[in-house]
Amino acid sequence: MSRGTSVLLLIVYGCYLFFQLKSHAEIYNRPSEKVERRHAKVGEGDASRGIAQIGKMTAAPLVGQSADHMQMEEVEEEPEEPQLSVLTALLTLIISTAFVAVCAEFMVESIDALTATGNIRETFVGLILLPIVGNAAEHATAVTVACKDKMDLAIGVAVGSSMQIALLVLPLIVVLGWIIGEDKMVWMIPI
Known about the structure:
Helices cover 69% and strands 0% of the residues. The protein is built from 8 helices and no strands. The longest helix has 31 residues, at 86-116. The protein is extended, with a radius of gyration of 27 Å. The relative contact order is 0.12.
């Protein structure tokens, strides 16, 4: 039953990726609709001066003119320039991948020493500790962008990470265990 469920979950994840990256990509590529926050402090009487200023700006053009002559100014947005060149981005990606691989190797090697003392079980390390440590960068990213008031991105990172684990990683482990003939992997993973 877990094998069939895992195959279905992998198909659902594939459909989700197709939906997000191909069929409805324009939904996910839209810029945020939030307005930039003001960082200036509001002083006493600023609200009344602001209201008076708005009244002055709207009333001044109407003196001696009909509403037909008024035109709205359109602000043209400049296209964003990339901060990194393609070569710099690829180099950064390769270097960070190498660092992550080295850190992961050290972490996996330290599991035997950690569980040899008998205080911590291998099941706890594999099912609780490793996923938390492995997703630390995603958690940090979600918290960082949430502090910058970009909640749509923070929720996207958190939900995307959870969906990736639930719909890809766990079912893939079950299917790989099935392929290599390790049925012990199947009962250890709660689906």
